[in-house]
Specification:
It is a single chain. With 533 residues, this protein is α/β, with parallel strands linked by helices. It has 14 helices and 24 strands. Strands 1, 2, 10, 11, 12, 13 and 24 form a 7-stranded mixed sheet that branches. Strands 7, 16, 17, 18, 19, 22 and 23 form a 7-stranded antiparallel sheet that branches. A two-stranded antiparallel ribbon has the order 3-4. The two termini are 38 Å apart.
Length: 533
């Protein structure tokens, strides 16, 4: 087996991995290897903001399905996770939100994560952000992650924001400021009308550094250990088996699904589960793969009387016109991220934090598993989810073969409060669609139709049609309790020479989209690794 030596091996080239590769390679004396299972971000749709609509299935995802969901009619729900350099930031909807300060204060004060209160981590949000509009104490303007306003929101998005206000939800010019609640048009992780993924913003500028090696198309078999110390990574690069030997640390950044899988294949995890699959136990760590926490999104779809949504461009001649407009001027519908508008709001008492988030899509059937409208018609979609769900699930091995998919069980709607809040989200979605600003454009709400009326009907609808919102977290959670996997410095409990630095270390799910917080985690992690904190 061919061996090569490095100071750091980063396992996973998603958002966090790209950040770590950039920041650690700033030290020209450090030798860095970044391993990614997927391919390069060569596909042009990745870089077009509207391309998100084509990315929830296909070769740039793993093709996961959940285990049968006991509280969601035993459905096996498609579970899109990226398999490409840049990870989720290369295929997501580019929505830039980061949760409320109280989310991070909860980590520090209630969940054993000293040093992760908002006052501690705000600097890393500012460091990462390159905002083209807002420059205040809440926003950075010079960071690698481009953040911008949509050049020209779709007419239905503007009508949605007006309808929210007519329904009593106040306008918010910034979801990432002092107050999270309200409605508005999302800022997106785009720059100059192109997607600014972590691969574009962080990794691409670092590729010229001679001390950074990036390998794509690599399947990691296991992390190797001598006693309790990580010594390297064994992987297959599509042609041969290789071993990367580390002098300093292995840094695992494979996300909330990939990271626990790799840890368990390496003998780190619940001893009984590892023994079940014939894996020698290096370290019995029961929290690995536990505590999976994800947003359970539920969609409503309306059919329009005319063609004022992005569905208009499903017709070939309009698609050609849009392509030409974008190629020549970087304007037009291709600059849309589809999920243009949104809101954070309350299912009941408005005195606390919002417990619901809404995503408005200026089209219908844009995402895998979400129905469209009648052929030839145009539509719009409104998705809602409980932002801090109580339900917890697991990630488990299917076998000891690294090529086998893990068993992903989010355990959606296991807690009654999650179902209750989800149903309120459907009710509010319908109320927004019933307001004058949207109602004048709607022929009908097609999904759910008007036969879904009672509380029982709505609960049944949620169980049958809810889906992942692509925000898995917490499967190698940070903390000090017996189920914690890493300490507040992101070092794996009981082991040396290994850290986890991705969304899996969140102790609980933050109340928004998760890409910006994942980048923040990696920014802080790079300082921890280099001893700057």
């Amino acid at each position: 087996m061919k061996e090569t030596g490095y100071d750091y091996v980063i396992v996973g080239g998603g958002s966090a991995g790209c950040v770590m590769a950039n920041r650690l390679s700033e030290d020209s004396s450090a030798r860095i290897l970044l391993l990614e299972a997927g391919g390069k971000d060569w596909h042009p749709l990745i870089h077009m903001p509207v391309g998100f609509a084509k990315m929830t299935t296909g070769p740039h995802t793993w093709g996961f399905k959940t285990a049968p969901q006991r509280h969601a009619n035993n459905r096996e729900i498609p579970y899109a996770q990226a398999r490409v350099i840049g990870g989720g930031s290369s295929i997501n909807a580019e929505v830039f939100t980061r949760g409320a300060p109280e989310d991070y204060d909860r980590w520090a004060n209630d969940e054993g994560c000293k040093g992760w209160a908002f006052k501690d981590i705000q600097q890393y949000f500012l460091k990462s952000e390159g905002n083209n509009r807002i420059a205040d104490e809440w926003h950075g303007t010079d960071g690698p992650l481009g953040v911008s306003d949509l050049p020209a929101p779709q007419p239905m998005t503007l009508a949605f924001v007006q309808s929210c206000q007519q329904a009593g939800i106040p306008y918010a010019h910034d979801f990432n400021g002092k107050r999270q609640s309200g409605c508005g048009v999302y800022q997106t992780t785009t720059k100059n009308a192109r997607r600014c993924s972590a691969a574009v913003g962080y990794l691409k500028p670092a590729l010229k550094r001679k001390n950074l090696t990036v390998e794509t198309g690599c399947m990691v078999k296991r992390i190797t250990f001598q006693g309790n110390r990580a010594t390297g990574v064994e992987y297959f690069n599509g042609k041969e088996q290789r071993r990367a030997v580390v002098d300093s640390e292995v840094i695992v950044t494979s996300g909330a699904i990939g990271t626990p899988k790799i840890m368990m294949l390496s003998g780190i995890g619940p001893a009984a589960h590892l023994a079940e699959h014939g894996i020698n136990v290096v370290h019995d760590l029961p929290g690995v793969g536990e505590n999976l926490n994800d947003h359970f999104g539920i969609d409503i779809v309306g059919e329009l009387t005319g063609h004022l949504s992005l569905d208009k461009y499903n017709k070939s001649h309009w698609a050609a016109w849009a392509g030409l407009q974008y190629a020549l001027f970087r304007t037009g519908p291709i600059t849309s991220n589809v999920v243009e508008g949104g809101a954070f709001w309350h299912s009941g008492d408005v005195s606390g934090l919002p417990d619901l988030q809404f995503h408005f899509l200026a089209g219908a059937g844009a995402e895998a598993g979400v129905p469209g409208v009648r052929p030839g018609a145009s539509g719009i979609t409104l998705n809602s989810y409980t932002v801090r769900p109580k339900s917890r699930g697991t990630v488990r091995l299917r076998s000891n073969d690294p090529a086998d998919m893990p068993v992903v069980d989010p355990n959606f709607l296991a807690e009654p409060d999650d179902l209750k809040t989800s149903v309120e989200g459907i009710k509010i979605s319908r109320e927004i669609f019933s307001q004058p600003a949207l109602q004048k454009h709607l022929r009908a709400i097609r999904f759910p139709d008007d036969t879904v009326k009672t509380q029982a009907d709505l609960e049944a609808f949620a169980r049958q049609y809810g889906r992942t919102s692509y925000h898995p977290t917490c499967t190698c959670k940070m903390g000090t309790d017996e189920m914690a996997v890493v300490d507040p410095n992101l070092r794996v409990h009981g082991l040396d020479g290994i850290r986890i630095c991705d969304s899996s270390v969140m102790p609980s799910l933050i109340g928004s989209n998760t890409n910006a917080p994942t980048i923040m985690i990696a920014e802080k992690a790079s300082d921890l690794v280099r001893g700057n904190r």
